[in-house]
Specification:
This protein is mainly alpha-helical and 552 residues long. It has helices spanning 2-35, 44-57, 60-76, 80-90, 102-118, 122-136, 142-156, 167-182, 193-212, 220-236, 241-257, 261-275, 281-297, 301-349, 353-394, 435-450, 461-468, 472-483, 487-505, 514-520, 526-537, 541-550. The longest helix is centred in the middle third of the chain and has 49 residues, at 301-349. This is HTH araC/xylS-type domain-containing protein.
């Protein structure tokens, strides 16, 4: 009887092992076939099923490969929230086989970095790119290695795109990307010729963007040459549709900026036709924006209004989605930090007595240093508040009334690096803003600050530009030059200064919840408020309030 029982258990184990092995082989076969597909959207449900099945049976190789495909599809759709969600789930998995998965892991970390860059988390994104380079350099295939490295170097530039001082870094990484792409052999081994020239074309496109941007390297003629090289390569080779579309968008915008409005509309209309086969809301948004401006110049108001309506609707939808994604990522980061702290604490508790004493000593020293740093930051903040109060009293008679900004109709605003619709007639070279305009906007900003309108939750770059009677590009540049901050840092700084003064001057607010204080100065959530407060002051809201209470 006992022998029969053991044989039955053995048969069940063998059957389970055989079926599991068969399932993994089937998964590998289907994934190998899907990987060759250029349009993953057609098979997205199949990929999701494979990912879920792999997860159920514990086949991490299947999760890694199918997860990479899910990330790739989401990235092409600009669905950065799902890129990060999937990437964070699979990037630390361990393969169950001896397969070399350096290439997939290189892609996973690269796409994770790219998504986090687009959502504004540049420091975290850069760490992802470093990990991607680490895996990329381990890829055995010569062609695959250089192809993956070219993509990583190209994507890293997104981390620097809003930093004027990092122009040379952008050009360095783009040139590194071109260098790696050109090292790929035209023998078609592992990387097709089409993929090679797709990568080169895409970097040409970004070099065009680089020379179009305002800065010391601005060269519109050179930018146009790169855009045309890019489009020619896309026409010559069977490249990715998404990249082909973006090359037309860039060329269309170039034509508009040099006054070739008919060429601009023809190029952009063509991009919208192609876009139907690879839907991407950011691509449509850019096309709608430039088409609106170009048809205004061509004196075709009906077409201009149509694209303006399309632009406005799509822009609002994208803004809403982006805000949701950013809030979710901030929550995830906070949760991970909490989990790290919890794990560290558990590790300390299970160590030996000697090690515990050593760790305790180190922690005590670190704690003392940390407290000293916090206290110094608190003293600096108190000194700043007292100086500002003194300054306000001495300069009370110097306050002036700033005239209301004129209402501007039919302004069009954008959300990405190229997003600025102009109204009125002014020069193409937006760096040459006349002094009269600069002074007018600065005076209106001063009034905006005095009236504390920055504490409204719905204040954004677009609404502030409208209130001041200007456009987003002018406002952004003036804030950057005269306030030495980005728009977000400028608004956040005003909000934190406001709540700090309120807590200092009105003791009753020290009894309120942190979440309420955050809402009071314009922040949407407690977490974001706490992060920004710490960034601006060097201490947490809780620490600041507790120390104020001690001074009573």
């Amino acid at each position: 009887m006992k022998r029969h029982y053991l044989l039955t258990l053995f048969s069940i184990f063998v059957s389970f092992y055989t079926n599991a092995q068969k399932s993994t082989q089937e998964i590998d076969k289907v994934l190998q076939e899907i990987t060759k597909e250029s349009n993953l959207l057609k098979r997205i449900e199949e990929i999701e099923n494979i990912f879920n099945i792999s997860q159920k049976i514990g086949y991490t190789d299947g999760m890694i490969i199918s997860g990479r495909l899910l990330m790739l599809n989401a990235s092409r759709m600009s669905d950065y929230e799902n890129v990060i969600k999937t990437g964070d789930k699979i990037k630390n998995l361990k393969p169950v086989t001896n397969k070399n998965l350096n290439a997939p892991f290189s892609d996973i970390f690269r796409m994770n970095g790219l998504a986090k860059s687009y959502l504004g988390f540049s420091d975290i994104a850069f760490q992802e790119f470093k990990k991607a380079l680490e895996y990329g350099n381990k890829i055995e295939s010569y062609n695959s290695r250089h192809y993956k490295l070219s993509l990583i170097y190209e994507n890293i530039t997104i981390c620097y795109e809003n930093e004027i001082k990092k122009e040379d870094s952008i050009r360095y990484y783009l040139e590194k990307s071109i260098e790696k792409s050109k090292m790929i052999k035209d023998d078609g081994i592992d990387i097709s010729v089409n993929h090679k020239y797709d990568a080169i074309a895409n970097t040409y496109n970004l070099l065009g963007d680089f020379y179009m941007k305002d800065g010391k390297h601005k060269n519109i003629k050179k930018a146009g040459e790169y855009y045309k090289l890019c489009v020619n390569l896309h026409e010559k080779y069977e490249t990715l549709l998404t990249n082909k579309i973006f090359s037309l968008l860039s060329l269309g915008e170039y034509y508009h900026k040099v006054g070739k409005y008919k060429d601009a509309t023809e190029t952009l209309e063509k991009s919208l036709q192609l876009e139907k086969g690879a839907s991407n809301p950011l691509n449509r948004l850019l096309a709608f924006r430039i088409l609106t401006k170009s048809y205004i110049e061509l004196n075709q108001p009906e077409k201009s209004k149509k694209f303006l309506d399309d632009y406005t609707t799509l822009r609002d939808s994208i803004e809403y989605t982006k805000k949701k994604s950013i809030n979710k990522i901030i929550d995830t980061i906070s949760l991970k930090e909490h989990e790290k702290h919890k794990t560290s604490l558990n590790n300390i508790l299970i160590t030996s007595t000697i090690f515990f004493l050593i760790c305790g000593l180190i922690i005590f020293i670190s704690w003392k240093r940390h407290n000293k740093k916090l206290h110094n930051n608190y003293k600096k903040l108190m000194k700043k508040i007292k100086q500002e109060n003194k300054f306000d009293k001495n300069n009370l008679l110097d306050n002036t009334i700033i005239s209301e900004g004129e209402n501007i109709k039919n302004n069009i605003f954008s959300i990405n690096k190229k997003s600025n619709l102009y109204s009125g007639n002014f020069q193409n070279n937006t760096t040459n803003i006349v002094n009269e305009t600069v002074n007018s906007i600065l005076k209106k900003l001063e009034k905006f600050e005095k009236q504390k309108k920055y504490i409204k939750k719905d204040v954004n770059l677009a609404s502030l530009a409208t209130y001041l009677g200007t456009n987003t590009k002018y406002l952004s540049e003036i804030i950057k030059l005269h306030k030495e901050k980005s728009y977000s840092s400028y608004i956040n700084g005003l909000r934190i200064d406001y709540i700090v003064s309120l807590l200092y001057e009105e003791p009753k607010y020290r009894e309120y919840k942190i979440s309420y204080l955050g809402e009071l100065c314009g922040f949407a959530s407690r977490e974001v408020f706490s992060i920004v407060f710490k960034k601006e002051t060097g201490i947490t809201p809780f620490y600041f309030i507790e120390n104020l209470k001690k001074k009573i």
